[in-house]
Amino acid sequence: MMIAAASSTLLQHVSSVSVANIVRPGFRSLSAASARNLSTAAAAAAASSSPRSLSAAQSDTRVLLGLSEPELQQLAVDLGQEGYRGKQLHHLIYKRKVKEVDDFSQLPKAFRNVLQEAGWKVGRSPIFRTVTAADGTIKLLIKLEDNRLIETVGIPVNDDKGLTRLTACVSSQVGCPLRCSFCATGKGGFSRNLQAHEIVEQVLAIEEIFKHRVTNVVFMGMGEPMLNLKAVLGAHRCLNKDVEIGQRMITISTVGVPNTIKKLASHKLQSTLAFRYTNCHSLHASNQKLRETIVPSAKSYPLDAIMQDCKDYFLQTSRRVSFEYALLAGVNDKTEHAVELAELLQNWGRNYHVNLIPFNPIEGSDYQRPTKKGVLNFASTLEARKVTVSIRQPRGMDASAACGQLRNQFQKSPLLTDSEISPPPETELAVAC
Ligand SMILES: C[S@@+](CC[C@H](N)C(=O)[O-])C[C@H]1O[C@@H](n2cnc3c(N)ncnc32)[C@H](O)[C@@H]1O
Ligand code: SF4
Question: Out of 73, 117, 222, 402, which could bridge 171 as a Cys pair, Cβ 3.0 to 4.6 Å?
C-alpha cells in the first residue's frame, strides 16, 4: 500500500515536471520549423503522404532508449531514487542491452514498478524477419510500435582474424517521399519519420544478431535523413556518446534537401560535442537536366547549389565529401557523363571521393545494371582525370539488396494486422544462402 501511494505521487510529479525536460525535441517527429525549411517539392511530397507521424498516444510513450546518462540520472531523481540509479539504467540499456524494464534485475523491484507505472519502457522493437545473404550480410525487418516495418542491414567484413568491421545501414524514415526513380524505398511511398530511438535501436538490433559491436553506421537505409534532421542528430548523439561509436564512423547520406548541409556544418560549430559527419551526397548525374530525370526532387535544389554547399561544408568542417553515383545502364553511365562529372569536380583538390554504385535491379523498374566492363570504363575515365573513385561491391544480392525491396515484399499496405505478425525471429530465420 505504501509503495502504491508513493508511486502515484511520483507519477503526478513525472507528468507535470520531468517529462517535459527529458523528452527532447530530437525524439519527436519532424518539427514545424524543419518542415518550413524543406524545398517546395519535398514539402509537397511529405504533405501528400499520410499519416506522417505517430498517433498522439504513441508519441507520448516514455522511452528510455536515446536518453543520455545525465537525463537518466535526472529521471531517477525525479522518480524519488538516488542519482546513481540513472547510471545503472544507462548501463543496463546501452551496455547490457536489456530490452524490458521487467528484466532490469539489478534494480529494486519497487523502482521497476515506479518506472512501469509512470509509463516508461526501454523502447526496443521486435525483429519481424531476418534474411541472410551468402556473403554474410543480414537484412532485418524491424516491426515498429505502430506495426510499420523498416529495413536495417548489417554488413560484416571478415579477415583471417575474424569479424573486423560491422557496418549498420540504418533507416531514417518509414519509406521516403522523394521517389528517386531507381529506388525501391521511393517506389514504396512514405509513411512517417522515425524517432531518434527508432534509429538507435536498429544499431542495437544488428549488434544482437551478429553478437558483435557495430563499428560503423551509415544512414543509407530507407528514407532521406535530411528530411528528419532533428531525430537524425538526436540518434547521432546517442550512437556516439551512449553506444560509443566514433563520430568519424558515422556517415549521413543525402540526395539533397536545400539548407540542410549548412545546418549540419553549423551544428558542428555550435555544439560542444563537435559533431563531425561524413557528408555523402547522392549525385547520380553529371548535369542538372539529366539529374532531374532520375531524381524528381532535383528541380528544387540545382546541382550548382549542391556543389557549392558541399564545398562550403568541406571548408567549415574539413570533412571530405563523398559523392554517390548510381550507375544506370545507358542512362548516366556513358563516357561523356564521366567526363562531365570530372569537370564538375575540377578545382576540388583531393577533398572528395566518388563512389560508383552499379544499379541493384528492383521490381517494376526498366533500369538495367551496367556490365562490369561498362562500370570499369566509367571509373577509369574518371581516374584518368584525377578523380578519386571507388566502385561499391554489391553486398547481399540474395537478401533483396536494394534498399526498400524487402520491406516492399511484406508491406504493400501501410499497416500490418496482428494476424500478419510472424512467429518470433528464432523460429523465423530465413536464410537465403
Ligand atoms: C537508399 S538511399 C538513403 C539515403 C538518402 N536518401 C540518399 O538517397 O542518399 C542510400 C543510397 O542507396 C542508393 N540506392 C537506392 N536504390 C538503389 C538501387 N536500386 N541501386 C543502387 N543504389 C541504390 C541511393 O542512390 C543512395 O546513394
Ligand atoms: S534514393 Fe534516398 S532520397 Fe531517393 S527515394 Fe531512395 S531513400 Fe529516398
Answer: 222
The Å distance, Cα 64 to ligand 2 centre, comes to 30
One domain for residues 151 and 106 = no
Residue 52 covered by a domain? no
Please write down the long-range contacts of 71-75, taking CB distance under 8 Å and 24 or more positions apart: 71/22, 71/24, 74/18, 74/21, 74/22, 75/18, 75/22, 75/120
Mutate to test the pocket of ligand 2, among 153, 169, 176, 295 (most ligand atoms within 8 A of CB): 176
- Domain termination residue (choose one: 105, 121, 137): 121
Q: How many domains does the chain have?
A: 2
Nearest protein Cα to ligand 1, atom 15? 183
Establish whether residue 232 lines the binding site of ligand 1, counting it when its CB lies within 6 angstroms of any ligand atom: no
403 a catalytic residue? yes
Please tell me the pTM assigned to this model: 0.83
Atom of ligand 2 nearest to the CA of 183: 6
| Digit-coded pLDDT (tens) for 40-56 | 434 433 443 333 344 44
Of 70, 87, 121, the one marking the end of a domain is 121
CATH of the domain at 73: 1.10.150.530
- In b/e form, how buried is each residue of 165-198, taking b as 16+ CB within 10 angstroms? ebbbbbbbbbbbbbbbbbbbbbbbbbbbbbbbbb
pLDDT of 331-347, one tens digit each?
999 999 999 999 999 88
Q: Is residue 147 part of a domain?
A: yes
Q: Could you tell me if 87 and 218 lie in one domain?
A: no
Candidates 169, 176, 183, 403; catalytic one: 403
